[in-house]
UniProtKB/TrEMBL annotation:
GO-annotated cellular components: cytoplasm
GO MF terms, alphabetically ordered: metal ion binding; tRNA-guanosine(34) queuine transglycosylase activity
Organismal lineage: Eukaryota, Viridiplantae, Streptophyta, Embryophyta, Tracheophyta
Keyword annotations: Cytoplasm, Glycosyltransferase, Metal-binding, Transferase, tRNA processing, Zinc
Record protein name field: Queuine tRNA-ribosyltransferase catalytic subunit 1
Gene: LOC107800823
Subunit composition and interactions: Heterodimer of a catalytic subunit and an accessory subunit.
Entry function: Catalytic subunit of the queuine tRNA-ribosyltransferase (TGT) that catalyzes the base-exchange of a guanine (G) residue with queuine (Q) at position 34 (anticodon wobble position) in tRNAs with GU(N) anticodons (tRNA-Asp, -Asn, -His and -Tyr), resulting in the hypermodified nucleoside queuosine (7-(((4,5-cis-dihydroxy-2-cyclopenten-1-yl)amino)methyl)-7-deazaguanosine). Catalysis occurs through a double-displacement mechanism. The nucleophile active site attacks the C1' of nucleotide 34 to detach the guanine base from the RNA, forming a covalent enzyme-RNA intermediate.
Extent of the signal sequence: none
Naturally occurring in which organism (per UniProt): Nicotiana tabacum
Coiled-coil spans in chain: none
GO BP terms, alphabetized: tRNA modification
Names of required cofactors: Zn(2+)
Highest taxon above the source species: Eukaryota
């Protein structure tokens, strides 16, 4: 085992720790940006150090195709090849079973891919996956697992879980550098709690350096997502790191950290940057929107990153529509945001103020108190009271009629015209349309209505919080930006 994991602070299930790896001493919770082929698009290794990146994730499948693991090994390993002095993690290539399924054939022996480079078949066995990762030389390497989408049901889920357990033994036997590289096992089992439990117990028996929770963020609803995370973190060893794979939305990371997870990775922060979207405490800011044209403020006035210190929204708006430099600046900012979020999670747990941090985070992201129900349920299990962040009417009976029993008149909360004189309804007779008076913007911040005086239509700058399935992350493969469906889109000044 080539790591040490020392817990420095706790709040119920959440924990902050020191993760000591061969190349770097990390603090958890932590987010790992994805450098598929040994690079984060548009950023240098020095810039990644500047923003506080601790671990970069590389992809075994893609690195094996180009530049090849043999060449990387000859040149001294991936650290030296990409001039990265801190920690590295390589995945096993198993995720390509899902993302490139039309090119793959899965058997007990391994996975046969059709190479996207030359079209030739490429067999990836558990042994070969480990051998490739041994040559690449990352601090943490992942076992090859049988990955299936969580939306799939039936015997295929059970087959994949048991195959994952059989393959972990082959990975352990093939691992030639256990004192230099840490092999993590991956918990599979879909949304079936029985299968997840079997897989957790099977992996824990192998006494691995760390464990990952896989097979999520692939189409399941958020309520199922957090329940699987909660189940697995509760069953995994307390003294080993826990890694939830493929998670990159800030809200998801806060929830999973509250449930006891430590590590996360996703392409989301950099992928959404290439679509002109910035991460901000309120959600996301769409820099391509025309409202940014003359906005001379920084992306986030509370952010102290290089981009927010030196550049305005108007300048970046001009760049993202015409120049690749805009994507680079937004990638820098977004990863800085993620690293700062990780640091804040760590310090708030160590300093005993984690509940306050969670409430502040939610209040900024959901100023109207419309915190998603799945978040409320997850935080309740995590032992964190977020009632101060939630809709003040959330405690009312779900059926308005039920309030009559208690003798409570809530009619003013339910009828859009209830606050207007009753005679306004008579305007219908005169053919006067007063629909614009009936609070169509009631769910938006009040300052948005101020734009009406200037004759500005601001409705397109805001998007509601939609409980979309997590498979929206799959659109990243097709370079489709779905961030506006997942977080509030702020394109106007916030007073």
């Amino acid at each position: 085992m080539a790591l040490r994991f020392e817990i420095l602070g706790r709040f119920n299930r959440a924990r902050a720790a020191r993760l000591i790896l061969p190349h770097y001493e990390c603090q958890t919770p932590l987010f790992m940006p994805v450098g598929t082929q040994g690079t984060i698009k548009g950023l240098t290794a020095c810039q990644l150090e500047d923003i506080g990146c601790q671990i970069i994730l590389g992809n075994t499948y893609h690195l094996a195709l180009r530049p090849t693991s043999e060449l990387i090994d000859e040149l001294g390993g991936l650290h030296k090849f990409m001039n990265w002095p801190r920690a590295l993690l390589t995945d096993s290539g198993g995720f390509q079973m899902v993302s490139l399924l039309h090119l793959a054939d899965i058997t007990e022996k391994g996975v046969t891919f059709q190479s996207p480079v030359d079209g030739k078949p490429m067999l990836l066995t558990p042994e070969e996956s480990i051998h490739i990762q041994n040559r690449i030389g990352a601090d943490i390497i992942m076992a090859l697992d049988d990955v299936v989408k969580t939306t799939i049901t039936g015997p295929r889920i059970e087959e994949a879980m048991y195959r994952t357990l059989r393959w972990i033994d082959r990975c352990i036997a093939a691992h030639k550098r256990p004192h230099e590289q840490n092999l993590f096992g991956i918990v599979q089992g879909g949304l079936d709690p029985v299968l997840r439990d079997i897989c957790v117990r099977g992996l824990v028996k192998r006494n691995l350096p760390g464990y990952a929770i896989g097979g999520l963020a692939g189409g399941e609803d958020k309520d199922s997502f957090w329940r699987v995370v909660a189940q697995c973190t509760a069953a995994l060893p307390e003294h080993k790191p826990r890694y939830v794979m493929g998670v990159g939305y800030p809200l998801d990371i806060v929830v999973c950290s509250a449930l006891g997870a430590d590590m996360y990775d996703c392409v989301y922060p950099t992928r959404t940057a290439r679509f002109g979207t910035a991460l901000v405490p309120e959600g996301v800011l769409k820099l391509k929107h025309k409202a940014m044209t003359e906005d001379m403020r920084p992306i986030d006035p509370t952010c102290d990153c290089m981009v927010c210190k030196k550049y305005t929204r108007a300048y970046i708006h001009c760049l993202v529509t015409k120049d690749a430099m805009g994507s680079q600046l937004l990638s820098y900012h977004n990863l800085y945001y993620m690293m700062k979020l990780s640091r804040n999670l760590h310090s708030s747990i160590v300093e005993g103020r984690f509940p306050e941090f969670v409430c502040q985070f939610l209040q900024k992201m959901f100023p109207e108190g419309d915190v998603p129900e799945w978040v409320c349920n997850a935080m309740e299990v995590a032992g964190i009271d977020i009632s101060s962040c939630c809709d003040p009417f959330s405690s009312l009976p779900s059926k308005v009629e039920d309030t009559e029993v208690a003798g409570i008149d809530i009619s003013s909360c339910c009828a859009p015209l209830s606050s207007l004189p009753s005679e306004v309804e008579d305007t219908e007779v005169a053919g006067i349309d007063i629909s614009s008076c009936c609070a169509p913007l009631s769910s938006l911040p009040s300052e948005v209505e101020d734009t009406e005086a200037a004759g500005t239509d601001s409705s397109s700058c805001y998007s509601p919080f939609l409980s979309l399935p997590s498979e929206v992350e799959d659109t990243e493969v097709a370079e489709i930006d779905t961030s506006s469906c997942c977080a509030p889109s702020l394109s106007l000044p916030v007073k």
